[in-house]
Structures are given as structure tokens and as C-alpha cells.
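Record pair follows.
FIRST:
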Amino acid sequence: MRSLRVGLAQINTTVGDLDGNVAKIVHWLDEARRLGVDLVAFHELAITGYPPEDLLLRPRFVRDNLEALQEVVAASRGITAVVGFVDHPAGRGELDDDIYNAAAIVHDGRLVAVYHKQHLPNYGVFDEERYFQAGRLSPVFTVAGVAVGVSICEDIWYPGDPTRSQALAGAQVIVNINGSPYHRAKRLFREQMLATRASDYGVAVCYVNQVGGQDELVFDGGSMILDAQGRLLARAAMFQEELLVCDLNVNEVVRMRLHDPRRRRERRQAELQVPTYHLSGEPFQRQKPPVEPRVAPAPDGEAEVYQALVLGTRDYVTKTGFRQALVAMSGGIDSSLVACIAADALGAENVTGVSMPSRYSSEGSIRDAKTLAQNLGIRFLVIPIEPAHQAYLDMLAPAFAGTEPGVAEENIQARIRGNIIMALSNKFGALVLTCGNKSELATGYATLYGDMAGGFAVIKDVPKTLVYRLARYRNSLSPVIPEEVFVKPPSAELKPGQVDQDTLPPYDILDGILEAYVEQEKGIEEIVALGYDYETVARVLRMVDRNEYKRRQAPPGIKITPRAFGRDWRLPIAHRYQAY
């Protein structure tokens, strides 16, 4: 039986940490070699970290990444590896000044060839045409007697080249290296797409994805291997580092092709630009025990989202150099969820909850915040804001004379809290995690320089209805959030008897409208056709459009939906268009 032992190194790299990334690559190279792997693959731009954004415009950064690649090449004795990096052919002595999103094919201490990504995504969170030139060639390599094609992320999402050309040129295995960010339910869509590519072209597909948080993005891993019929053979765990190893039976590919006249006809008609490279006819290690393929269970629903939020929070805090975090705990559902995520991400000993009650804070809310802090085992501070609040009212009384109390007086409280928690941040070097959710941020139901003050918005992309479900999920692991938090009406508690529904539609209605407008880009007529009241829809859409100025000033936060208020949302602040 002709087989290829493939390793997919699902690792957590950091943008710009070239030394750290190379050290991690070399470590997993050594582990793959120990396990008798013939070909090990690392994720897209593994050497630089992904996405490097405007670091790519710095010549020194590109040059340093090429030097770092040489360290990986030197460490590849006795193994073949595919490693993502930034290629600058001129920096390697060639006549080409462009830079490319590239995969290095290294073999036994040599850089054998370089593949350049052909399909450059330029939508949503992706902006690759800003930096890279597109590649044109689709090479095939013979590794341990098996023909292998290499591609990068977006290349395999499109039917056709390079996968088609590589398969027609004889590739039996496609290795696709990725920096594919997470959003809800994306895993199933990926698996379906990869199964289609594998079965359409009669190739086994080895898909390696990075794992970890990078600014607003979370990469979920979930690397996988599918056979030539599109069946899942092996899958790595989500949200953690892992080396996935699998023995691929290539004889199955050969048998399928012998019975496929369609492929022979296509090959006769195709004009292929496919360079071929013979690396090895036999594996480095001929005698090795078989590896049992492993399909890791995948979380779904709230478990998947919660793990993404924990990983994204942990990596943002640690990769930006912080060790501790602060959470303003009001006793409401949002801050309760954020406190849980922070404790799970960083450890209870590294999280401080801060209660800042006012004259309008209920005893129940104060008690709920304290109970949650005790259940989580985090440090808990109580700093009443009444002295500062009254001082502000007295100071502003002459200027406010003759006017009715309103939003200005309410927001003073939120801004006092923002000042207090930022003072604690400055004093103790802890990162402030804000607690605003997507429903609030969409409609502007938040106070600039108040509850929006902080360094990272953990649930910025989580609709309010999902906040409740995530909190229930967390309580299913251990019941830390008091039941009262779930049943009391949500309220900012900035005036007597206040509840969110004084200003907003019920959240189950609001979130449905927001999903249709923000994520699905439906117009008002289409949203009303879903069963919503016209006036309610128009009011929500006006709130969304009028509050872009607030969203521009919000901290970064974790993307968990197909369209978040971040890199993939670019609405002008000053505009007069309205379609409602």
C-alpha cells in the first residue's frame, strides 16, 4: 500500500513574534519527525503570524521574515514541511519586487520551492490586495512517492484552479494551509466545502488552520483530513494547539482515477502550467507503526461560542503584555458573563471585579455581583460613586438651572464609573474588559467614556439574547451566576425604575431585526416581510445608522458572527442616506 503520513501542526502564533513563531515551528517539526511524519504543514503566514496588516509595508519586517525562514529550513533535516511566510523574490535574488502570501516547501534542510497564493480575499475582515501580488503557478511535489499539491486558504474555496490543475497534473493529495477566522457555524460550512473539493477532483485534502486570538479575530483550528471521496478521516480539536497525524492511503485515489473517464478527458483538454518537483521516492522512515486516525469531537452551539470568547480574551490580554484584568460588575447579565469569561481565560487570581453602586443601584444587583465574585473566587472591590455623583450635580447645577433632569444626569454616573475603573487600570496595570453587547452597540445604548471605557470588549459581537444563553451554558458547567440575574429585567439603573425596554424593543425582537439588517444586509421591506412592525424596524434602523460615531470609539472585541462591528463594517459617520 502506498501511503503518506501527514502531520497538520495546528499552532498559536503571534503577529510579529518572529523568534517565538520560529521556535514553535521548530518544536513541532521535531515532534512530527519523532512520529515518523513524511510531510508536516503549518498555517498561512505562520512565520510572521496572521494577519500582519501594515507590518507588511515595512521592508525590514519582510526581510526579517525571510531570515527567519532560513532557520526553519535548517531545522527540516529528515522531513518535508510546508510553512507559510511572506515571500519577496527580490530578497532571494530574483527579479520581482512584489511581495506574496506564500508557502515554502522545505525538504531535508533545503528550500525546494515556493508557492504563491492565487486568490487574494478582499472582503469582510480580509484586505490582502492592499499588500500582496497574486500567484500564477500551481506546482506539484512528489513526497515519499506521493504527488502533492500545495495551496493557501482562499485558493481552495473556489472551484477550479489551483486545485483543478494540480489534480489533473497528478496530485493525489492537496495540502491547504489556512488563517481562517472563526464565526458561528463556520466549521460545518468548511467541512462541506472541503468534501466537495475532494470528491470533485478526486484528491485527498489536508486542511491545516491556525488557532488562537489575534486582536478582534479568533482562529478556531479544527484542522482536518478528508479522503478523495470527501469523507472525514481525521480532525483536530477546536481552540487548542495540536499535531494531527494521519496515514493517507493513496491507492484509493489511484483506483478512483482508473474508473474516471471524465478526468482523463479533462486532462487531455487542459492547458496546464504546473511545475513538478521530485523531492523523494521513499519515506525517510520506512518502518513505523500505523497511526489510528482521530476525529476530535467538536463543540457546537453555545459551547463553541463560549470557548471562542475565552480563547480570544486570553490571547488578547496576554499577547498585548497584560496579566490581569478588571471588570465593572453591576450585577447584570452582561457583566456577569464577562466576569466568567475573564476568570476562565486568565484564572480567578488574575481578575478583579469592581462594584460601583449609585443611589439607584438595587440591593439585589449589589448582592448578585458580590455572590458571583465569591463563586468565581475573584478579588472584589466595592467603590460607591455617590460622593462623586453629588459633587458633579452640585458643580453643574448653575449651568443646568432651568432644565429638566435627563440623559445628561444619567450618563454622569456611567462616566464616573469609567473614570474609577480606568484609574484602577492605570494604578495596577490591569486591562479593563468592557461589558457592552452587540445589541447595545448597534443601537447606541451605551455611554461614551462611561461603560464603553476600557481596553477590550469581550462580548461586543454577542447579541443580548445570546448573552443569556451563554450565561446559562456557563452555569451548566458550574452554577456561579445567581438565578436572580437571569430573571430580573435588564436595566442600566441610572434612574428610578429604569429598564432597557423603556428605550429599546424587547431583545428577542431587536436581535432579529439587527441580524437581518447588519449580518444579512436586508432592507426595511425585507425585514418587515419577516413579520416585524414597520415602525419598530424603522426606529431600530435609525438607531443603528445614527450611532456609528460611538462604534468607531469602542474598544476592539471578539468577532463571533459573520459580520461584526469591526474590520468588516465600514459605515460612514457623516451621511444622509436612509431607506426607511
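SECOND:
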Amino acid sequence: MSRRRRSKGSGACGVLVVDKPAGPTSHDVVGWVRWVLAEPRVGHCGTLDPAATGLLVVGVGPATKLAPYFTGQDKGYWARFVLGASTTTADAEGEVCEEVPCSPEVQAGVGDALRALVGTHALPPPAFSAVHVDGRRAHALARAGEAPVLPPRPMTVHAMEPGPVRAVGSRLEVEATLLVSKGTYIRSLAEALGAALGVPAHLGALHRLRSGALHLPHDRAVTGLRACRHQPTPSGPERWRIELGDPGMPREAAAEHLRARLLPPAEAVPLPLLRVRDDTSGQRALARLASGMPVAVDDPGLPVVPPEASPLAVVPARPEAPGLVIVRQEAPGQLQPERVVVEPARSP
């Protein structure tokens, strides 16, 4: 019986800061990067809704192992909330299901209502979301007419900066910039804002600005992506073709463009860095961690390890050298390897 051989991949390794256009799913962007780089190991580090734009962090090659550490980071957004109408999807993609004209009193209360969202709230995720329900995505159930009632979960708004408020007919469009915790749905915040003001509401537009320390604009961001809609199949979802730059750009040119924008894992990892010493003791400590063995915090190959820092990313002394191991301080006085992201070079 023959075994299927695993593709060796392209050798590309790093993190892409992608400025996603509206239309494609996050998975569509991942598929495009896979195709351009001929690299099967590609994954995004936090879903962005199809209609949303902005920062999508994409891991390539071994750097896909960093995804769990990115998804736990706080996220920054620019949002436009629409007061006076609710939709089936809680965003502008759905059908309007309720409308109530916004009074002058509603407009006067917008600023206070936005600021009141700062803090932690128990809110249900939208039915049209990627939450798993009995092994299926909630959005798949909702599209099949079986919209689930999802239980509330903690959602935290760390900061909220109100922006312009505009009257558009009987509705109000409210802009805001906000910083939120992992697992916070901005569509849920839109509905909560409307409830606080006594009117239906939905999310009109969303642009992600930040994920942890990565942000837009960024000097190595992948920008200028264009999304072209394919003719959908009768029973299938929308399909999109993603292009970079001018129509017809050769795949090789697009691959060169992406490779030039890959952030090295040690530069992108959203964890404190611990560089081993630039000697044989440092090389031995990193090699031991990469082989799955713990290392004492007072090992001669390590600098001073902050006692409260965990997890940490242990990397070689020289930035150009390969190697990155995620460790935790679990046992007293020991660094326990959790994940080898990039294998260090073998000592001669």
C-alpha cells in the first residue's frame, strides 16, 4: 500500500501583514498565498469577516505554529455602527429585519453609550459567525435556516474613541475606534449599542487596524490586493479571485513580492524574546529546548529570565540565525519547551 508523500513546501517561513480587501473570506486569502508561494503550510491568525477589511495576520511555513499566540492578542478596529435598523446577520450583508427612526435624543446619547461599552460584558456572538455548534459552524446552520441561539460570553472593550456621527435619512451612522479582547465580536457590540439607546442597530463597516503589536499601516504590509467576484455556482457560496497589483501579474512576480514582505518569526512573535548567549553554552541551551528537554533558568547559556514572564520565545543570540522555541515557566526554576517553531542550526 503506497503512502501519500507530504509536500516539502517552498522553504518560505515568516509572517505576512496582509491588508485584506472586502469580499473574500480569510480562508480565500490563505488559499491565494498558498498558491502564490507554492507552500501548503499557510494559515491565518484570526478570522476577519468577508465584508471586513484590514489587517489579516498570515503565517507561512513553520511560522504557522505561531497562530495560537496571535489569536490571543488584543485587536484594534475602526468601526461604523448604524443605528435605526437591524439585520439578519448583524452587519450590512444581511436583510433589514427591523427599522426605527432615530430621534434627536438618540443622537445626543451616542457618545455616552459608546463610552459605556468600555469594560467586560456578557454578550452572545452573532448567529452568522464561526462559532462551533455540535461540530458545525454557526453560520452554516444559520444559512440552512437553523440559526442557533448562542450563549453569552465575556467580551471586553479596553478602549473606545468615539468618532463622527452622521444622520443618513432616519438612521445614524456612528464611527468609532476601539481596542478589544480576544473573542469580542464587533457586531455584538453594535447590537448592544443599539439596545442601550433603545433602537435596532447593526455593524455598517469594519476595518482591523491592529493585532497585538502588528498594525496597519506597516512598512512591509501586503497591500494593493484586488478581489474579483467569480460567477457563483447555483448552490455554492460566493467565489473570489484575488490579484496583486496590475491584472495579469505573473505568479513568480507575486511570489517575489510576498517573500520580500515576510517578517521573520522572531520579529513577529507576539511574546517576549529571550536571546541565548552568543557562545557554546547558549547554543547548547537552545538545542536542548528544541529537543524537548527543560532548561534551568540559571543555565549559563541564558541571560537573566524575568520570573513573571511566561510564555517566552527563546531565540539564537544572532538575529540572522534560525531557531525559535516557545517555553513556559511551569516547574520552579525551569523553562519547559512548549512548541518548536523553527529548528535551530545544528552545531558543527
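COMMENT: The mean pLDDT is 90.
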